[in-house]
Design goal:
With 165 residues, the protein is α+β, with helices and mostly antiparallel strands. The chain has two domains: 88 residues, Homing Intron 3 (I-Ppo) Encoded Endonuclease, Chain A, CATH 3.90.75; 60 residues, AP2/ERF domain (GCC-box Binding Domain). The chain has a three-stranded mixed sheet. A three-stranded antiparallel sheet has the order 3-4-5. Strand 10 and strand 11 form a beta hairpin. The longest helix has 16 residues.
């Protein structure tokens, strides 16, 4: 009896980091050396490598873009569904626009309430959402949970599969 194929394989990269990839991609991706790049604004690591392009220049290539087949000039982005930038399994990656990728962001660190789209307005809890650079007021509610539910409903309508509550 053979054991089932693992859900992912691990590739060790620099700085003590490990990347998860789908098993069918392991041999190809593990045949080259990958490094860990820390992005301070996101507070996360990404797997990348430098490739010689000639003329004394290198180009950084990100593993998640390689997996999705995104060439260096392609303006589309890779989105990590679960926000784990070292989970480069097929199930966790999808092609996105910058706008779509921004919709899948977690609650901001400076959010005092801890719920996306919710703020206190003195007499209750305000719910709002931004789309195409415009802020849409969704209402004022008695509790922060009610305001957040309203945000999540609207986010699902506006952002679809990229919505994150």
């Amino acid at each position: 009896m053979t054991s089932p194929e693992p859900l992912y394989r691990e590739i060790k990269i620099t700085k003590g980091q490990v990347v998860r990839v789908s098993p069918h991609r392991f041999d190809q991706l593990n045949s080259v050396k990958w490094c860990a790049l820390f992005n301070p604004s996101m507070g996360k690591f990404y797997a990348y490598r430098n490739v010689w392009v000639g003329g004394g220049k290198y180009r950084s290539i990100y593993m998640h873009r390689v997996i999705l087949g995104l060439d260096p000039g392609d303006k589309r982005e890779a989105d990590h569904k679960n926000l784990d930038t070292l989970d480069n399994t097929d199930e966790n990656l999808r092609i996105a626009t910058r706008r779509d990728n921004n919709c899948n962001r977690p609650v901001r660190k400076d959010n005092k309430v801890g719920l996306k789209g919710v703020s206190s307005n003195g007499s209750g809890w305000r719910s709002r959402i931004t789309r195409n650079g415009y802020e849409l007021h969704l209402g004022t509610f008695k509790t922060e949970e009610e305001a957040h539910v309203r945000y999540c409903e609207e986010a699902e309508k506006m952002h679809g599969k990229f919505a994150r509550g």
